[in-house]
Amino acid sequence: MTQQKRHENRVVLVTGGCGGIGSAIAHRYAAEGARVGVVDMDPVRGHALEEELARQGGQAFFAQADVSDYSQCLAACEAIQAQLGAIDTLVNNAGISPKHDGRAHGVHEMDPAEWLRVVGVNLNSAFNMARVLTPGMRDRRFGRIVSMSSVAGKAYLDIVAAHYASTKAALIGFTRHLAGELGPYGITVNAIAPGRIDTPLLRTVAAEANEAVVQATPLRRLGTPEEVAQTCAWLTSAEAEFVTGQVVDVAGGWLMT
């Protein structure tokens, strides 16, 4: 089935674009007619995704960057815009959730360097990209921003650590503030809070923990990256142009808040 070309002539940047959810988002936007900039740390997977999208008829460009570093974000955005045009849609998808032998460290045992790294990738990256791209969005009086939060940003989960939960909660606050700040310029800003999504990251957690989540989820299954991607694409489409400052759960009813 051919995707509706809701994003034709749009330029979308996806951070963490080589992961399970990021790749699904990149594919979705390409199928809907957008030119897709992919930012990730992994050049092998990044160039492979760029080539795969091109084979499928899309237009994409990969830029390698550590999104926790502002100067690298700036360089990546400049490279993508030189190839694809002005970026009007930003998806802050990059995120990490370190585990140790399948479990998250408590605060009492957490390496301070690990805390700073998670804050840098999960939260600072969203500021970095917004700082680079929102001046152009304001000038053009149009823009769409979606940040990937988590149900862990709204409720306690013992399968993640404090740094992950804190950054995902902070992204919700960042989203709501940006929505108010940028709304007068025609820019919408929203967040998605996925539940347990069937990605490679999921497999860093013990199987019994994932099964417990399935049993606690009203729909009795894990989510898919494609389900997150289609929500993201809707939030940045004309169909949702009066939706801003919202956090949309994609969690099958798990941890309803």
List keywords for this structure.
single chain, 257 residues, Rossmann fold, 15% strand
Task: Give structural notes.
This protein is of the alpha/beta class and 257 residues long. The protein has one domain: 3-Layer(aba) Sandwich (Rossmann fold), CATH 3.40.50. It has seven helices and seven strands; from the N terminus they run E-H-E-H-E-H-E-H-E-H-E-H-H-E. It has helices at residues 20-31, 43-55, 70-84, 112-140, 162-182, 207-216, 225-235; strands spanning 11-15, 35-40, 59-64, 89-92, 143-148, 187-194, 247-250. It has a seven-stranded parallel beta sheet with strand order 3-2-1-4-5-6-7, sandwiched between helices. Strand 1, helix 1 and strand 2 form a beta-alpha-beta unit. The radius of gyration is 17 Å and the shape is globular. The model has no long low-confidence stretch (mean pLDDT 95).
